[in-house]
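Researcher: I've been going back and forth with a colleague about how Helix-turn-helix domain-containing protein might be arranged in three dimensions. Neither of us has a model we trust, so I'd like an independent prediction. The organism is Kribbella sancticallisti, in case that matters for your notes. Sequence below.
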Amino acid sequence: MTLNVKPLWTIEDVSEYLGVPVKTLYGWRLKKVGPGAVRIGKHLRYDPDEVVAWVQSRRLAS
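Model: Here is an independent structure prediction for Helix-turn-helix domain-containing protein. You can compare it with whatever you and your colleague have in mind.
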């Protein structure tokens, strides 16, 4: 059985994609703004589709 699932992004991946520092992403998480992340053990992971959807929602809001 093969799963057709995209790998989750690390905080560094999201930082590079958005062009913002990792520290900014941590700050957004504390303020509950920015793309949603899930904690897996001690690591944050992001669904790439959710990150892209968040960017799209920001475009529509401005």
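Researcher: What would you highlight for our discussion?
Model: I'd start with this: The chain has one domain: 11-54. After that, consider the following. The mean pLDDT is 93.
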